Amino acid sequence: MPIVIPKDLPAFDVLTKEKIFVMPSERAVSQDIRPIEIAIVNLMPTKIDTETQLMRLLGNSSLQIKVTLVNMDTYISKNTPQSHMHKFYKVFDEIKDRHFDGMIITGAPVEHMGFEEVAYWKELSEIMDWSDSHVTSTIHICWGAQAGLYHRYGVTKRARESKLFGIYEVRAEDKYDLLLKGMNDSMYIPMSCHTDIDQDKLRNISDLKVLASGKECGIAIIKSLDNKRFFFMGHSEYDRTTLKKEYLRDVDKGLDIQKPVNYFEDDGLYNINLSWRSTAYLLFNNWLNYYVYQVTPYSFDEE
Q1: What's the domain range around 210?
Q2: pLDDT at residue 28 above 50?
Q3: Which residues are catalytic?
């Protein structure tokens, strides 16, 4: 089944070339199908890249997915043309009376700031609270996961001695959870973060379950026991070259940055081992199937 997005969204042409089944919005409205409604709260600076990455994973499902892109009303994006934002994005006030089957809250480049120092923290907190009654299940990614864990459970973060940067092996702590169905014993996830959560405190929160962790990266995937919230500490959605772009960006800035580990296959910058793609597809497909589609009401009036 297709992912339903506007035909003039940049992701449409990219995904079409990749043989991802996409359908323009005007075609979808003529079908007597109730699509799965997914809101993407996109906090990343490279919004167009992130849209495409997430839609690629959502579009691999057997479900018809309709995406609503959401941005912060209290912050103006500096890296994405405002024409794109005005055309394709909605602010919270425009969606707060709607219900969604699923929501994704992305990462954001604000790790070095305290949560309350972030310009849109109050607005994001309001969205997270709203999701309790308006969203069936939510994925929080990277800083979005840290933000969710802090807001809901008081889990703090702390600076790492050095940036966690590269592709890291993780293994299941609960191999029978449906989110990990079909996974190999070893899973690989891109990580790019300067901070870490208080992992000891998290493991003592009775409402949370750690699903996967790694020796080098620590806790990688967490969920709430009611399955309404999932926390992905890494960036499974990343493209083949995303970490390379981040590395070259930091080199250009003169920052003290090491090459991403387990990423380049040799000493150069061209041969990249795309070892995480199958894990990413399964994570999002399993979430959509088992924690969204199977439990969301056919009509939100039924709630």
Answers
A1: 3-239+277-302
A2: no
A3: 142, 235, 237
